[in-house]
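RETRY 2/3 - previous attempt timed out on the joint model. Re-submitting the same 625-residue input unchanged.
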Amino acid sequence: MQNELRQTCRRLLEEGTVQVVIGYGDGTDGQTFPTFVTRRDDVERLVWNERCYTNLATYLTRPEILALGKAAICVKACDERALVVLEKESQIDRSQLVVIGLACSTDGVKQPKCEACENRTPRWANVTIGDAAGETAKTTADRYAALQAFMQKTPDERMAYWKTELARCVKCYACRQVCPLCYCRQCIADKNRPVVISTSATLKGSFAWQITRAFHLGGRCIGCDECTRVCPAGIDLRLLNLSLARAAEENFNFRAGVDVEAEPIVGAYSERDREEFIR
Amino acid sequence: MSETITRGALLQRVSVWIGGGKSVIGPRQVKPANGSGQEVPVQYGRVASAEELLLSGDTRPANSLKEFFFPRHEKLYGYQFKGRQIELTDTEQPSTEQIIVGGRPCDAAALPVLDHLFNWDYRDETFNRRRELTTIVTIACRSFDSHCFCTSVGSSPVDARGSDVLLLAVDAERYEVRFVTEKGRRLLNGATTTANENATEPAAPPKRFEMEQLKEFLAGGYERPEWKTTTLRCLGCGACAYTCPTCHCFDIVDEGNAAGGLRARNWDACQFGLFTLHASGHNPRHNQAERQRQRIHHKFQIYPDKFGETLCTGCGNCTRNCPVGLGVLSVVEAIAAAPRENQSQK
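RETRY 2/3 succeeded.
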């Protein structure tokens, strides 16, 4: 599969279809990291294995990467959903992008999110490499199992939980920087004339930041869980995202990034909207 | 002849310190309050009991010790508007004695490096007060991972710098005790025994780059393309700086309302675009490559020029905590090994 990936990328670069391939490169100890291949002979650096965690879609809105030219991007099925949202929100031009879909093996990439994975093969890629046989259908309950378990706690217990967890937040903003959908040129957390969200890594400041972050991703978060994976303090941010994703599904029958036809619930206008105030 | 202490005797002391109202800080497992399967890190933190401490010397905490001297948020003073007057209120100076048990040598070694900064043109009251109130017991590292590079920056797993006591594991139950300061000797007075046993020196991580080569590159390679090629994947978060034992940049903020508020010192990080953004809208460091260059220059050229010390202890936390596996080591390894013939290229 890795060879097929390299050959595909070599061809794309040779033909001049793209100027850069955004993929995974080999790191130490079998870890992988994002890599940007601009010369065909460098395709040998590309790898595909069960440790390709990063959702590379986050690079598609970065000026440093856009400057490299037309891109081909490697995505797993979960990452691919970010492309759907980015396109709906007019952040990327799909015609100027080659999407290389990477099908996950039965083991997936061994992250907590993989337990609820329902399709391991990307669906809208220009080229798909590998095939993931034996996909298992998942129910709504499977998707929100982690949240459901958490919601068994009383509100007081949940508040105590978040106080313990967010006390460790140092506001490094890794959650924001890694997120493919946190692409704002100026984040509200950086607004300082006047300050909207306290920059202090206090309980108050961290609650304000994490709640705002979750709300801004309501109906938009595609559940790649990158925020949770990269948090140096080990805060399970996924629970916040799941909560809003479930609200979107229950109330609007909407799941971000799974249907290319569906209009986003935030940002789409319809005269048939059921709410009076918006019509 | 050497001094040894048993793990039991050490933990007994820890219980006494905690019972006596002292703050004991050490590596501990951050407990997940829900069983979501998420990996939870080991961090330095205040422990409520001796049993919480992880003293094997095998796990590198995901944070550093600096926050117990230079907290991520520190109130400097309060203010109240009283009619047309402003009333200022001082903050209480730190007064709780702190004992760090099971610190890593690479964390302790950062503290004397930071002393220069916090006693430079201004003697920082709270930092120095906390330094005085703290006694540090480190444990020599028994293992290292691929991100450790202390030996490349002149340190080692048995570096006693910044420690008051350095412990080396003799076996699972005993440590050889190396007293570094009088403060350390007082701390463990009566808990150690004299024995004819020395711990074997633990294995040190291999040297990953030559400091001389790095300095040479920094002196002439400001415009080198490697800055961009090695840092392209940087996402611009502050995970490296905030888990680094030596990074110390901060911002001063006011927080409050029409009645009053407080002025505070908050951590800040050079990888944020906002860090150097001018009020005019101009940003002298446009992109991540320039911000990474600054970070490396500060650690290996600017700080050494100013204070004679490298602003890096080789702990590797920057790489371990980086969302995309980028850190001081990967950048420095690449540039120190870069071919020299292009050195003068502009």
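The longest strand of chain A covers residues 20-26. Closing ticket.
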